[in-house]
Amino acid sequence: MSSNELWYLSGDYPQTLTTLGLSDNKLGSIPTELGNLTQLLTLVLSRNQLTDSIPSALGNLVRLTELYLDINQLRGTIPSRLGNLAHLTWLDLSDNQLNGAIPIELGKLTQLTELHLPYNQLNGTIPSELGNLTQLVNLNLSVNKLSGAIPSGLGNLAHLIYLDLSTNQLNGSIPSE
Question: Is 149 a domain residue?
Fold first, then answer.
């Protein structure tokens, strides 16, 4: 393991840290100080016992390409500041207790290939801005409380091979494009 790929658990994070993987532990919260790790490319906090909200300070990690916060008990809304993560290719917030609307700012993450938000309590409509994510291969918004029509802009997702919107409260017609 190189010095830039540390799997590291300490309160004194080096500024050169690019990968932080702490999955499969019993961590209870995400420290806001993680937002100071400006060189971080990958953050993996999957399968812990995270119960607080997602700190908006994670929106400071502008070099981040992968963010995994899945299979926890995170509450609250998805911070709109995650829309600042312009290099993000993979975002997995599945299997939590997140609520509120999907932020329209996620439509600015044009490098995303994977967006996983299932098994939460997200509500409101699917933002039409998700149609800007033209690199998406996988979009999973299943098992939420989303309502309204499926945005026709999802037809812009030319690389999409997997789309799951099941177990929501969607209505209207299936867009033809």
Answer: yes
CATH of the domain at 102: 3.80.10.10
41-56 mean pLDDT: 97
Over pLDDT 70: what percentage of the chain?
Answer: 91
Distance CA 122, CA 5 (A): 34
User: Domain limits at 152?
Assistant: 54-170
> Which strands form 145-148's sheet, in the order they lie side by side?
99-100, 121-124, 145-148, 169-170
Give me the number of domains the chain comprises.
Answer: 1
First to last CA, the chain: 46
The model's pTM is 0.90
- Going by C-alpha positions, the residue among 91, 83, 101 that lies closest to residue 43 is 91
- Which of 125, 123, 120, 126 has the alpha carbon at shortest distance from 157? 126
100 within 8 A of 74, measured Cβ to Cβ: no
Residue 78 CA to residue 62 CA, distance in Å, equals 17
Residues for the chain: how many in total? 177
- Is residue 13 included in any domain, yes or no? no
46 found inside a domain: no
Token readout for 144 is 């939420």
